[in-house]
């Protein structure tokens, strides 16, 4: 069964006027983390209202819908997923009525023991409405005999293994938890309300804070739970912090490589600066002669700037991206994939014709994107194409919430460097080393990262599997 918690974005807003509108803008700024479906739950202190649908944030919501999602607290979710069922039941937030009242929940990550838990819950008579591993959590919370939701959440999470950034909404409170490994990002910010009171935001990426004028405070810590209350009693809201699991930080290094927006601060560091430094390190590791450095837009732009600066080879925007590409209406055959690349990317033939070019992208997964890009560059007359990748070869799948294909489809897991170069059709191919990648990050806070997709070493207690 396909589980639906790949990547995604979550947001939580507490004690703010029009909380659902702030969730909407936050989800809009994090659209890159998931384009399949979007949802918001809001509470007015009496009841929780939820609206979710398939599509982009701007398509799912309008003024009328947001006006119905009233209250000072709200959570939201963007779902990422490119294949399989399109059921609304598989989008989030999940809403349920249970022994203590109402609850809504949004999750970014992946539970590695989801199948086991679901099977045992079904044995005990539970009925599931979705394919979401997150639904397990609702059942575990509903079954717990504790008197307070905070204890029920803690109880339920002791049974869950995996990667999670979670936001829960009850009628009057909001709860936020990050797994003890800190695999998925989650930051805390402050909102200045027009009446002078303070509201709070938690979001997968800090770019959400910028859009709504919130100030970054800090990351939610690995293994930390934050409880927000007071919005409906007119008390000052001060988030209460509890370390519910011992922190063993292993944040996802791939957030820096590809996933996060460059203007976000992720795991305490700005993504753009790190990506640029990856280009610098790439140039230090692999020096060659060429006429120009060209990024694959947008994923290779920052690294290409860094490469150009370090090598002295001029930077050119040799490939132009059409930002308005939505869906293509043709079956996903090989020729459709080619069309998809051409719809999105077009090389400037006058610039690159007859030239030796260095093309920079962030990663190779299946190899199909690189192959298509090289093909259109050759068609546009490039003499030689040297492909530089600002991360190491992706050799293992992710089981912690990033959508990577099975190992059998990861080209670098199954082929030599020379075979990969030959398949994609480049004249030469270079990757940044894992050491170079970590040097680029140079984090004081984080000495360890999850880098399993590059080295195959999964977190022992979580294992490398997805149920
Ligand atoms: P591929 O064609 O499979 O080699 O895909 C590589 C391209 O997809 C790169 O240009 C990346 O920018 C992008 N990419 C890398 N990882 C992911 C991911 N998890 N989800 C979507 N796109 C990705
Ligand atoms: Fe991130 Fe890769 Fe680890 Fe998955 S396996 S959490 S993508 S570093």
TrEMBL record:
InterPro entries xrefs: GATase_2_dom, Ntn_hydrolases_N, PRTase-like, PRTase_dom, PurF, PurF_N
Annotated CDD domains: GPATase_N, PRTases_typeI
Domain of life: Bacteria
Gene Ontology terms for molecular function: 4 iron, 4 sulfur cluster binding; amidophosphoribosyltransferase activity; magnesium ion binding
Domain Glutamine amidotransferase type-2 positions: 8-231
SUPFAM superfamilies in the cross-refs: N-terminal nucleophile aminohydrolases (Ntn hydrolases), PRTase-like
Free-text cofactor note: Binds 1 [4Fe-4S] cluster per subunit.
Pathway: Purine metabolism; IMP biosynthesis via de novo pathway; N(1)-(5-phospho-D-ribosyl)glycinamide from 5-phospho-alpha-D-ribose 1-diphosphate: step 1/2
An annotated GO BP: purine nucleobase biosynthetic process
Binding annotation for [4Fe-4S] cluster: 252, 398, 450, 453
Catalytic residues identified in the record: 8
Function: Catalyzes the formation of phosphoribosylamine from phosphoribosylpyrophosphate (PRPP) and glutamine.
Family: In the C-terminal section; belongs to the purine/pyrimidine phosphoribosyltransferase family.
Protein name: Amidophosphoribosyltransferase
Gene encoding the protein: purF
């Amino acid at each position: 069964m396909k589980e639906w918690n790949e990547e995604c974005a979550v947001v939580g807003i507490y004690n703010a006027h029009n909380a659902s509108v702030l969730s909407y803008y936050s989800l809009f700024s994090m659209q890159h983390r998931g384009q399949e479906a979007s949802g918001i739950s809001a509470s007015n202190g009496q009841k929780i209202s939820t609206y979710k649908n398939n599509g982009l944030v701007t398509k799912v919501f309008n003024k009328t819908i947001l006006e119905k999602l009233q209250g000072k607290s709200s959570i939201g979710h963007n779902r990422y997923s490119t294949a399989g069922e399109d059921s609304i039941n598989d989008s989030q937030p999940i809403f349920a009525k249970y022994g203590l009242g109402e609850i809504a929940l949004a999750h970014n990550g992946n539970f590695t023991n989801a199948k086991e838990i679901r099977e045992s819950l079904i044995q005990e008579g539970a009925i599931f409405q979705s394919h979401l591993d997150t639904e397990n959590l609702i059942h575990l919370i509903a079954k717990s005999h504790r008197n307070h939701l905070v204890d029920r959440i803690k109880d339920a999470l002791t049974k869950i293994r995996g990667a999670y950034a979670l936001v829960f909404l009850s009628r009057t409170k909001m709860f936020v938890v990050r797994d003890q490994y800190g695999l998925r990002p989650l930051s805390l910010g402050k909102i200045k309300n027009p009446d002078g009171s303070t509201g709070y935001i938690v979001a997968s990426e800090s770019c959400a804070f910028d859009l709504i004028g919130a100030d970054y405070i800090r990351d939610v810590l690995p293994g930390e739970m934050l409880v927000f209350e007071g919005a409906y009693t007119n008390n000052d809201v001060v988030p209460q912090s509890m370390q519910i699991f011992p922190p063993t930080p292993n944040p996802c290094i791939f957030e820096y490589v590809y996933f996060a927006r460059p203007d976000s601060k992720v795991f305490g560091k700005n993504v753009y600066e790190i990506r640029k430094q990856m280009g610098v390190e790439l140039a230090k590791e692999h020096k060659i002669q060429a006429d120009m450095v060209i990024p694959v837009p947008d994923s290779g732009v920052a690294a290409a700037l860094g490469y150009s600066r370090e090598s002295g080879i001029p930077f050119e925007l040799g490939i132009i991206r059409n930002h308005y590409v939505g869906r293509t209406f043709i079956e996903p055959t090989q020729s459709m994939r080619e069309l998809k690349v051409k719809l999105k990317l077009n090389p400037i033939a006058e610039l690159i014709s007859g030239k030796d070019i260095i093309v920079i992208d962030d990663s190779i997964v299946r190899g199909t994107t690189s192959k298509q890009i090289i093909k259109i560059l050759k068609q546009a007359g490039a003499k030689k194409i040297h492909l530089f990748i600002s991360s190491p070869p992706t050799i293992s799948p992710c089981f912690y919430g990033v959508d990577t294909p099975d190992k059998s489809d990861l080209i670098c897991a199954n082929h030599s460097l020379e075979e990969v170069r030959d398949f994609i059709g480049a004249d030469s191919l270079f990757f940044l080393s894992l050491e170079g990648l970590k040097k680029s990050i140079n984090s004081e806070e984080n000495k360890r990262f999850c880098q399993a997709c590059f080295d195959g070493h999964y977190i022992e207690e979580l294992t490398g599997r997805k149920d």
